[in-house]
């Protein structure tokens, strides 16, 4: 077993494993060259290209896990919710889901093999191209984060429409969350069956909520989701924006809690207790000079105190302006500085 999978299970490792959210993307010249030829969704739907892009950071950076190249929004298509990516404003949902009648039109069942088979093919192709000791991570958006996209119609600053449904029509909210939960569970289990050795649930926008609303409107659905997942693959439960939610996220489920950079890793882990932890370097540390980047990475390693179960990652995704050299230097530094 490799060090990443060992850490997911809180077993001792010979160094701290590292991978980076958005490790395949526009900061890589090879990715930008492919993007000249294909649209982003087109790349996701072409399993040969998706597998090639997934493998890029493994050879280029020496990370300890690959994550399948796809997007959290792809599952919306089989749910009957059309979307596209705009050049400047990110994703746009064609007809936002705002009323209980809209919720009723969302598909109640998703056949992942039939409708998202291209992701599963990309997983199979990536798995056969990866070195045996580098595991492949599958992923999905979490119900809240996907619900916020479909209700708002895109990214949001205030989550006004999402909260209007949540607080104003909890029946419609719960029906939407249930449909998303079942679709996500089936999709993640299909990814594991296709060869993903761990899965990550991205609740990227969960920080829009306070703890009591999380407990009331989201946590029951998350518990249900984790109860449905194939127990053979470890699950990373990632959320950003509000560190006060981490204890509730841990109680909901997941073998690994993924934290952002808005909290101190050491005290967060002390408070959470018996769970593996992924994080949590501020991605923009990569813009600092090399010595400062290493100092900041060391601070994260010091906070983890070599406790079994630490997976080094950024507190959120890599960004297009990052330099490949700096990212590689971070991976090398974490490997060298954490060697036991
Ligand atoms: O991590 C990886 O390398 C795997 C691939 C991956 C992508 N998106 C590729 C991508 C993963 C795991 C995601 C998850 C995702 N997608 C999230 C959760 C993670 C997070 O950042 O919080 C979210 C919120 C999305 C939705 C999404 N996809 C947005 C808002 C955007 C536009 C913003 C942007 O960065 O351009 C995307 C597009 C996207 N997803 C790109 C990539 C490489 C850029 C597409 C391009 O080439 O133009």
Description:
The structure is a single chain. The protein has 340 residues and is an alpha/beta fold. Helices cover 49% and strands 12% of the residues. The protein is built from 15 helices and nine strands. The strands form two sheets. Strands 1-4-5-6-7-8-9 form a seven-stranded parallel sheet. Strand 6, helix 12 and strand 7 form a beta-alpha-beta unit. Helix 9 crosses helix 10 and helix 10 packs parallel to helix 11. The two termini are 18 Å apart. Coproporphyrinogen III (CP3) binds next to strand 3.
Query: H/E order of the elements?
Result: HHHHEEEHHHEHHHEHEHEHEHEH
Number of strands: 9
End-to-end Cα distance: 18 Å
- Give the cofactors and ligands: coproporphyrinogen III
The major sheet is characterized as: 7 strands, parallel
List unreliable stretches of 5+ residues: none
Q: Tell the overall outline.
A: globular
**How many helices in DSSP terms?**
15
* Mean pLDDT across residues: 97
Structural class: alpha/beta
Radius of gyration: 19 Å
Strand order of the largest sheet: 1-4-5-6-7-8-9
Strand-residue proportion: 5-15%
Q: Helical proportion? A: 40-55%
List the helices and strands and how they pair.
Elements: H1 3-8, H2 29-37, H3 40-45, H4 47-61, E1 66-67, E2 83-86, E3 90-93, H5 100-105, H6 112-115, H7 117-129, E4 136-141, H8 143-152, H9 160-168, H10 170-194, E5 198-203, H11 211-228, E6 235-239, H12 246-252, E7 256-258, H13 265-272, E8 276-281, H14 290-304, E9 310-314, H15 324-338
Parallel strand pairs: 1-4, 4-5, 5-6, 6-7, 7-8, 8-9
Antiparallel strand pairs: 2-3
Helix pairs in contact: 4-7, 8-9, 8-10, 9-10, 10-11, 11-12, 13-14, 14-15
Coproporphyrinogen III (CP3) binds at residues 21-26, 35, 40, 67, 69-73, 90-91, 139, 155, 202, 204, 317.
């Amino acid at each position: 077993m490799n060090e990443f999978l060992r850490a997911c299970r809180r077993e001792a490792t010979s160094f701290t494993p590292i991978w980076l959210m958005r490790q395949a993307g526009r900061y890589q010249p090879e990715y930008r060259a492919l993007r000249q030829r294909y649209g982003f969704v087109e790349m996701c739907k072409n399993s040969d290209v998706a597998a090639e892009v997934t493998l890029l950071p493994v050879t280029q950076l020496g990370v300890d896990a690959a994550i399948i190249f796809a997007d959290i929004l792809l599952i919306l298509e089989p749910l009957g919710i059309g979307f596209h990516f705009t050049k400047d404003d990110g994703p746009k949902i064609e007809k936002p889901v705002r009323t209980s009648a809209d919720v009723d039109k969302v598909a109640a069942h998703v056949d992942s093999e039939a409708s998202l088979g291209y992701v599963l093919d990309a997983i199979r192709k990536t798995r056969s191209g990866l070195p045996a000791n580098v595991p492949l991570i599958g992923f999905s958006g979490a119900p809240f984060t996907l619900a916020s996209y479909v209700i708002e119609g895109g990214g949001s600053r205030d989550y006004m429409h999402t909260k209007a449904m949540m607080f104003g029509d909890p029946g419609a909210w719960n029906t939407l969350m249930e449909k998303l939960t079942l679709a996500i569970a089936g999709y993640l289990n299909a990814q594991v069956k296709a060869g993903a050795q761990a899965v990550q649930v991205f609740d990227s926008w969960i920080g829009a909520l306070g703890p009591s609303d999380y407990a009331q409107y989201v946590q029951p659905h998350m518990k249900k989701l984790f109860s449905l997942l194939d127990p053979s693959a470890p699950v990373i439960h990632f959320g950003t924006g509000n560190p006060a939610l981490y204890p509730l996220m841990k109680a909901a489920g997941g073998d690994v809690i993924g934290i952002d950079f808005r909290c101190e890793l050491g005290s967060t882990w002390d408070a959470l207790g018996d769970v593996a932890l992924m994080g949590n370097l501020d991605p923009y540390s990569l813009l600092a000079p090399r010595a400062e980047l290493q100092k900041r990475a060391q601070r994260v390693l010091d906070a983890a105190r070599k406790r079994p179960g630490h997976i080094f990652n950024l507190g959120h995704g890599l960004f297009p302006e990052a330099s490949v050299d700096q990212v590689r230097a971070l991976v090398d530094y974490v490997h060298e500085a954490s060697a036991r």
